[in-house]
Amino acid sequence: MAAHLLMAGTLAEEDPALAWRHARAARSKGGRIAVVRETVGLVAYRAGEWAEAIAELRAARRMSGGPGQLPVIADCERALGHPEKAIELSRSAEAADLDPGSAAELRIVVAGARADLGQLDAALAHLEGALGTDADEAFSARLFYAYADLLLQANRRPEAVDWFMKAAEADPDEETDAGDRLTELADEQAEPPMADEDAARDDDALDELGGDGTDQIVVDVDDASDTDDTSATEDASATDDASDDDAPDGLGGDLGGDELPTLDDIRDVDRLPNQEPADVDPAGTAQHLDVQLPETNIAEPAVEQIRPGGVSAPEPSDPAAQQQHSLFSHNELDR
Question: How far apart are CA 169 and CA 178, in angstroms?
């Protein structure tokens, strides 16, 4: 049992988990001894086993009497999310029997509990009652450090820096990290916020544009719109002129404004000068109409015509009817 207690105390700082295992081994052999239970409770506190620490320290207090480790119990309650219980412990009868060092530790815990509840002013006031103590006291550095941290939370940065400096001066053994906090605050003060730099660059860019840049942007948009309209008008005129020049005789170029093309003019569209009329290609017509038609060679006059539905019409027996039927079929194909 003694060996386990020794190892638990030795490893409490370096390896709290292993120290906690040794402490439980010691408890299994000396659970009725107050010092064993208190040691187990303190090791559990170091290892972050808050509920175990409360149970062991309360057992040790019942065995030995007195206030025991009341500040540690209060801090465990705060760690478990019960700040109001930590405040209640500070009002108990045992709190009045604490020595100055333990009383200062309890003040620090209660101030932290009030800060957890959002009561920063009450937390600062709770610590201010003990700030008049001598800086040479063993607990002074921790008291000053806790007060400086609360000032920083309350956005009272200059005062926080002063009290961090006092904490560093009262902590020659560097039990707190007051020196590191001062270095961090100095670095933050030296580095300007990135947002301010970006805003300054934006202001410079606007100054170069002149004013806020709105007038320049509006003018550019209007000029671009006029340019696009002029270009579109010129392109449309050029396209119309080119279409009139390239139009074949009888279509567009030689026709009057109200004159419509005849059937012969339509047939001569694809005919070059001195070229005989080409055979009608039903397959080409079908591709244009997106309808699949059987391939058929049609001679003039057309004996067999294809209706748009893809069904062959019967050949008329009457020549007059045949001629009328042929014209009807051509009109269908021309559509």
Answer: 9
The three-class DSSP label of residue 90 is helix
2-194 CATH choice from 1.25.40.10, 3.40.50.720, 2.40.110.10, 3.30.460.10 = 1.25.40.10
Structural domain spans, the chain: 2-194, 196-246, 279-334
Peptide bond into 319 cis (omega under 30): no
Rounded CA separation 190/268 (Å): 88
User: Which of the four pLDDT bands, split at 50, 70 and 90, describes residue 126?
Assistant: very high
Quote the CA–CA distance of 40 and 19 in Å, as a whole number.
9
Q: Are residues 303 and 315 in contact, defined by beta-carbon separation less than 8 angstroms?
A: yes
Q: Hey, what are 170's tokens?
A: 């009262």
SS3 312: strand
Average pLDDT over residues 74-79: 97
pLDDT tens column, 131-184: 987 777 889 999 999 999 999 999 999 999 999 999 999 999 889 999 999 999
User: What DSSP designation does 210 have?
Assistant: S
Distance CA 30, CA 100 (A): 31
What pLDDT digit, counting tens, does each position of 261-297 carry?
A: 555 554 554 444 454 444 444 444 333 334 343 444 4
Cα 323 to its chain centre, rounded Å, is 79
Which residue from 272, 274, 249, 275 is spatially nearest to 262, judged by alpha carbons? 249
Largest CA distance in the chain: 135
Q: pLDDT exceeding 90 applies to what percent of the chain?
A: 44
Q: What share of the chain is helix, strand, coil (3-state, %, to 5)?
A: 65, 0, 35
